[in-house]
Design goal:
- By secondary structure, the chain is α/β, with parallel strands linked by helices.
- The chain folds into two domains: 4-70 and 323-428, Aspartate Aminotransferase, domain 1 (Alpha-Beta Complex); 72-318, Type I PLP-dependent aspartate aminotransferase-like (Major domain) (Aspartate Aminotransferase, domain 2, 3-Layer(aba) Sandwich).
- It is built from 15 helices and 14 strands.
- The strands form three sheets. The protein has a seven-stranded mixed beta sheet, sandwiched between helices.
- Helix 7 packs parallel to helix 8 (222-233).
- The chain is globular, with a radius of gyration of 21 Å.
- The two termini are 21 Å apart.
- Bound molecules: pyridoxal-5'-phosphate (PLP).
- Pyridoxal-5'-phosphate binds at residues 62, 117-119, 122, 145-147, 158, 207, 211-212, 240, 242-243, 267, 277.
- Homodimer.
- One of its GO terms (cellular component) is cytoplasm.
- Belongs to the class-III pyridoxal-phosphate-dependent aminotransferase family. HemL subfamily.
């Protein structure tokens, strides 16, 4: 495959944009370096780079693009916004319509607020929990990523962990000491933390189904336990559903798991590909937010018509019957095909799959927490990533990121992907 133009553009980008990328996880640093492929356009499950190469995409822009690129229903909504005004700085009917839609799909939301990113949404839930409880400490789980604000860049996963610097420079020690990190799926460690600091904990920040050290389900009873102890100690439960909302069914992971958090943060899918975040939850807690209450959160672009209309259109697509069943079916074919191909060439992998999202770990251990995910062989993944790219399959350039199917992937795309993987595994086995 020829990548001449990608390399040229990337070299130019290096001169003008720090690291040549606008988000560190887009660089190929974690997969052995080199110029990232520069994309020109996308359609359905495919995108095309500036050198004219076609890829089947499993990055889905790190999650939002669940309906593929250029979906006509979403494109129409965005054009309507472009023609009728993309920003007013006043309330609009669209915001109300979208808030109602989210509330109908996710019963724990009494009230909602829109933001511009998942980071902003999670950041605000933490502030609101602190304002409501009058406490300052939070508990998070090791390897879970909640955005790039100070309090959550403490033993975080996703991009920061991949780059080998889980804590960011510039985060004050005073902030980090307000955050307690415990391993996911470990009741004992959680219990110890709550015994020690329970009365000082404002919130427990939870990715209910982890998406940031691969896809990891909570073990049966784990999150129920976390919720029970949080309640007992007067701490707020925050579900970070930035990845999981509308990923596995028409609603949030909390409904699949039978949980009702106090607050929920969302993003990614709910924007239909445009910038968005949202948070919501129990009325009495949400009423702490300005202008009703003393916790401040605002945004010039928050609730902008383009993001609202794109988000509504995306959910309308996802509400069609059979969508999630098909994602699950294709995910199953992909999982089995990858496992068989790896086995055929004697390559050891473990796959965690939840419907249309899966992760491939180069380890023979099961992966239930970050420590186990870290054991996945990064060098092996880096080689696999590049072999797949050469065969026209685009994955996230990190061993921790999930593969996401979209409503536009067809069975023939999955077959092509499995054939590419078989080639890649055969090369790894040499
Ligand atoms: N929370 C989770 C679980 C995420 O995966 C991410 C981003 O990957 C965020 C929050 C931050 O969202 P954003 O990148 O939109 O700020």
């Amino acid at each position: 495959m020829n990548h001449t133009k990608s390399e040229e553009i990337y070299n130019e980008a290096l001169e003008h944009i720090v690291g040549g990328v606008n988000s560190p996880s887009r660089s190929y640093k974690a997969v052995g370096g080199g110029a990232p492929v520069v994309m020109e356009r996308g359609k359905g499950a495919y995108f095309y780079d500036v050198d004219g190469n076609r890829y089947i995409d499993y990055l889905a822009a790190y999650g939002p693009i669940i309906t593929g690129f250029g979906h006509p229903h979403i494109a129409q909504a965005i054009s309507h916004a472009a023609e009728t005004g993309v920003l007013f700085g006043t309330p609009t009917q669209h915001e109300v319509n979208f808030a109602k839609m989210l509330k109908e799909a996710i019963p724990s939301l009494d009230k909602v607020r829109f933001t511009n990113s998942g980071t902003e949404a999670v950041m605000t839930t933490v502030r609101v929990a602190r304002a409501y409880t009058g406490r300052t400490k939070i508990i998070k789980f090791a390897g879970c990523y909640h955005g790039h604000f100070d309090q959550v860049l403490v033993a975080a996963g996703s991009g920061p962990a991949t780059l080998g610097s889980p804590d960011s420079a510039g985060v004050p020690v005073a902030v980090a000491t307000e955050v307690i990190t415990v391993p996911f799926n470990n009741k004992e460690e959680f219990q110890l933390a709550m015994e020690k600091w329970g009365d000082e904990i404002a919130a427990i920040l939870i990715e209910p189904i982890v998406g940031n050290f691969g896809m990891v389900m909570p073990n049966p009873g784990f999150l129920e336990y976390v919720h029970d102890i949080a309640k007992e100690k007067g701490a707020i439960t925050i579900h970070d559903e930035v990845i999981t909302a509308f990923r596995f069914h028409y609603g949030a992971a909390q409904d699949l798991l039978g949980l009702k958090p106090d607050l929920t943060a969302m993003g990614k899918i709910i924007g239909g590909g445009l910038p968005i975040g949202a948070y919501g939850g129990k009325k009495e807690i949400m009423d702490t937010v300005a202008p009703l209450g003393p916790a401040y959160q605002a945004g010039t672009m928050a609730g902008n018509p383009a993001s609202m209309l794109a988000g509504i259109a995306c959910l309308e697509v996802l509400k069609q019957p059979g969508i999630y069943e098909e994602l699950d079916r294709l995910g199953g074919i992909l999982e089995n095909g990858l496992l068989e191909a790896a086995k055929k060439h004697g390559v050891t992998i473990t796959i965690n799959r939840i419907k249309g999202a899966l992760s491939v770990y180069f380890t023979n251990e099961k992966v239930e927490n970050y420590e186990q995910a870290e054991k996945s062989d990064g060098e092996m993944f880096g080689r696999f990533f590049k072999l797949m790219l050469e065969k026209g399959i685009n994955l996230a350039p990190s061993k921790y990121e999930a593969w996401f199917l979209t409503t536009e992937h067809k069975e023939e795309d999955i077959i092509e992907t499995i054939a590419a993987a078989e080639y890649a595994f055969s090369q790894l086995a040499l």
